[in-house]
Amino acid sequence: MVYRLSDLARVAGATLRGNGDKEIQGVAPLSRAGEREIAYCAASRYRAQISNCRAGALIVTAEDAEGLEHDILICADPRVAFARVANALCPVPVVTPGRHPSAVIAADSEIDPGASIGPCAVIETGAVIGAGASIGAGAFVGARTRVGARTRIEARVVIMHDCVIGEDCAISPGAVIGGEGFGYVRESDGHWLKVPQLGRVVIGNRVDIGANTTVDRGALGDTVIADGVKLDNLIQIAHNVKVGSDTAMAGCVGVAGSAVIGSRCLIAGGAGIMGHITIGDDVEVTAMSFLKNSVEGPGRFSSSLPATNADVWAKNVGRFRHIDELARRLRRAERAIKQLLSGGKP
Amino acid sequence: MVYRLSDLARVAGATLRGNGDKEIQGVAPLSRAGEREIAYCAASRYRAQISNCRAGALIVTAEDAEGLEHDILICADPRVAFARVANALCPVPVVTPGRHPSAVIAADSEIDPGASIGPCAVIETGAVIGAGASIGAGAFVGARTRVGARTRIEARVVIMHDCVIGEDCAISPGAVIGGEGFGYVRESDGHWLKVPQLGRVVIGNRVDIGANTTVDRGALGDTVIADGVKLDNLIQIAHNVKVGSDTAMAGCVGVAGSAVIGSRCLIAGGAGIMGHITIGDDVEVTAMSFLKNSVEGPGRFSSSLPATNADVWAKNVGRFRHIDELARRLRRAERAIKQLLSGGKP
Amino acid sequence: MVYRLSDLARVAGATLRGNGDKEIQGVAPLSRAGEREIAYCAASRYRAQISNCRAGALIVTAEDAEGLEHDILICADPRVAFARVANALCPVPVVTPGRHPSAVIAADSEIDPGASIGPCAVIETGAVIGAGASIGAGAFVGARTRVGARTRIEARVVIMHDCVIGEDCAISPGAVIGGEGFGYVRESDGHWLKVPQLGRVVIGNRVDIGANTTVDRGALGDTVIADGVKLDNLIQIAHNVKVGSDTAMAGCVGVAGSAVIGSRCLIAGGAGIMGHITIGDDVEVTAMSFLKNSVEGPGRFSSSLPATNADVWAKNVGRFRHIDELARRLRRAERAIKQLLSGGKP
Q1: Global ipTM
Q2: For residue C12, which of A75, B116, B203, C227 sits 20 to 30 Å off, Cα-Cα?
């Protein structure tokens, strides 16, 4: 795509300073951008790179704009402006409708004529694929599952039967949606008895799901992922979890069964969310933390320990294992001091 | 399936009170169950929901049964009774024997006539698939691997060569069984030399394995998963691990190489198990904990920290990094107090 | 393969003692090795097993060699010698060139005549597959992606478009290379706006990647995995990460975006690496630790807590939540003691 700089200013919601007729056809980092490309400077610590930058245009804050001779777009948040410009210049490729001859498509599925079904994809009985949706190579869409318009299902994704995926979603390769929830009861002889997992996974619109992430179907009710949720790679969402709208989770997060997570939460990488708890809106959980109890939002919660020198750490861990004893000894010392201060003797 | 309530009482091992001829055809949660469905109340905190419940029948404890006008099944553990009833009313679909024409099946594999091979599945030379087993769409069964009777291999599962999967197992989509173990030695020039991984994965009967879980093959010996083990999603089982019968692990657990885990253990989500340790029978590890040393069972082990307000947490972490110094200062204070108490002066 | 023991001594870089003409055709553990097999004893704690060992030959240290009547190879590091011998006796099977008729291969891709393309594999437009490389069953190689000579891509691997995989790599089943990075900015209305992920994944030579591991493509620049890196299963490598040569990571590690990791690092299982930090060469991170800040190498870093009895643990965690208060109380006690020691009274 090629855009005039004045058009990009409009797309970005930014103020143009310089040659609005200049044609821009791509984005690049400050260090590599050429005269037909636009770059951005989001933080003043990168400001030094601007002087040598050969970009055709720059996106900067008003503060960083001072003294620059480049053609620039000025805005409050260059990262947002850049994302808008990049989406304009590098749009998601349009889907070419059609069915690859190697795909295995049930006769009674409903494939919109504007959808694309890739090689070796498998679409089972009663599945519904919306207009402009694409089903990647080797992906599997189970019986009666519905995939909304313009949703991209990438290669090797598995969506089991009776699930609902909204519109404008993107599901990355290897993700598994609608696998069996992990539900068992223990018989008196010690063996596990599987509890049938009869619910569905229901995913809203504009949801992104990362590579090899797993979202289990509900036991009796459904597992629900609301509109606008963004899940990174290798996340586990257990049965009956509810994730509120526009919540984002980074890689390797695990959410245990029946947890209810609010809207606009930010769950950082490697965090664990206990089962059966409720998390309010606008809650942040820091990386590698373990949210064990229900919390109200907004708020920021943490239990992670930053790594230090392993020898020092080992010493501290040894002390930690006796912290309860330490606290008791301190209490005794305080009592003795009180006694001494009051002039008493044992 | 349709059952008379008296038959369900027998299936559940529960006592019937009410109309044994009533026909029940499904299960549902208390809040949604209709007159042809059965629901259960496992904990008294849900007792309030019963009064409005329109279920055709309920499964309750003797205590919760008092005063109810519903047709009910009375038992000690409603969760177990419900699981039995649900398995009767919602059985796993029977496999339709046959081979999809798009499957790629080695001529010298042994596929039982009662097995089902899905579209785009690949079965390699010498593989053996038992009666009533199903191989899902796009699944891969490597050379000489044996899959037992009635075992369900879901879509896109990969089982590499020379592995053994028992009977009545269920392997969820995307799981990888028998990948190469992570075995290397460092050459004197600093490069890694791969150690050939020559063992197998041997999985017993009634084992369930979750979506995108990985179980590596052994280096010289085998990786062994005993009868009745249940593994959730996104679990890593490294080479030469042994997991004892009826042990269950929740999502995102990692088990390092050559760990030996006993029977009936419960490993909660996100826990890590150190390599080369031995864990006794009936050991529990709490969520997000790190079991670093061998332990005998029974016992419950933990090292997880529950998240709290991030600012408070940061302060505590800062202190933790000086806990060794804190302990030393306390020791000095105690000595000084002792001296003071004995009337001494420095 | 069959080797004379004298040839294996040469391969191993070890000193032969005994019958160099003996023919050896396999490897086995001490406990099971037969007369045509070679075993090794890496640590003196296994020394007791040697007396009953029926192996045709043994690899031992000079110390452990004393008094043995077996034919032996003596060396400083039996594990390295064994790995060399095992690679000779059990070589990786040679690839059989050819294209399975069920594979879907773009007409304008470049497949070396010496490469092997498995059943149901999909190779997209402009992809390049090198000599002796193998693409496993159902694997996906995206448009313009290059796979180097002798690299093994196992079943169900997904490599998205425009990536580069070097020579002599091994990518285990289910791994996803080049999925979209997790890059979003928040619009003023609270919705997430995707930032196009325009970079690639560039992987060097002799890189191994584990089952179901994910490596995201870069946002503007590339995600880079240098020569000789070894990644275990279920690892997440986020966009724009750089991993230095010969670094090894065990299972379930998560590396957040733009982290730069040095050469020859050892990241143990379940560890988390913060985004945008820099890690020097020869850094070790212990299992389940969270490296939050940049560190220089060499060095060993830890923040993991070993699990203990859950009741004791709960008590210590309770104290930990008041450690800041504990530290303040200790400070007050110290002041009071100082005052008392100097003879003062309040």
Answers
A1: 0.96
A2: C227
